[in-house]
Amino acid sequence: MEAVKGNEINPVVICGMGGIGKTTLMGEVVNRAKKEGLFDEYTKATVKETLDKTPDICLIQDELARYLGLPLEGKEIDARANKIRQRLSAGAKKVLVILDNVSTTNPDFLWEVGIPRDQNSCKLLVTSRERDVFKDIDTKKNFPISDLPENEAWSLFKKTAGGLIESDPDLHLVAKQVVKECAGLPIAISTVGRALHGEGIAIWKNALREMEKACPENVPGVIDHVKR
């Protein structure tokens, strides 16, 4: 969160392999930023590619503009980019720009979209499978996430789920299976541990049954459903 709060690091890049929990972690960061009132506005886009495997700039611009309440006319990319850039550079409001699934290493990508690179009023939060995105920007910092080995996964889960899972043999057995279903994904382990903290074994068993049907990266949503 310190990287998101300060002006020294921009962009902040959460990187790791597919399914590791980058988007979920980014969502948690954004939620915390909103709770702490770090930004006046938030805008986001999921980066999708065209048939020639390059980012669909128009689609990205449309998404960003929609969250900003900014009308865009026509399909002339440069004119649209200038309008977005002026909006983000105005300085009246501090904006968090969120780009999910960036893969391009094109140094002109941000300029083409309309995102200013040198404005303190605009912070950029990115997820990517690639460590080399925005490598030409000196103030960029990567925050890599990876799956945890079994002992570290269990240690993290105990911290978030509480000590009762060690003292209750029945709960301990279910908890071990729950951690296994998290597949070493830190964000899944933390989210599930917090959600099941203090719950009875019936909820734990129900959660485990649902988790066994889901992909690991979808586990947090499964837990939310179980607890409703």
From TrEMBL:
Offer one example of a GO biological process linked to this entry. Answer: defense response
Which superkingdom, per the lineage? Eukaryota
The answer to whether the entry has keyword Ribosomal protein is no
Instruction: Work out whether the entry's keyword set contains Transcription regulation.
Output: no
Any one GO molecular function term:
hydrolase activity
Q: Which residues belong to any copy of the NB-ARC domain?
A: 5-161
What keywords are assigned to this protein?
A: ATP-binding, Hydrolase, Nucleotide-binding, Plant defense
Question: Pfam families this protein is in?
Answer: NB-ARC
| Protein known as | Putative P-loop containing nucleoside triphosphate hydrolase
Gene source species? Rosa chinensis (China rose)
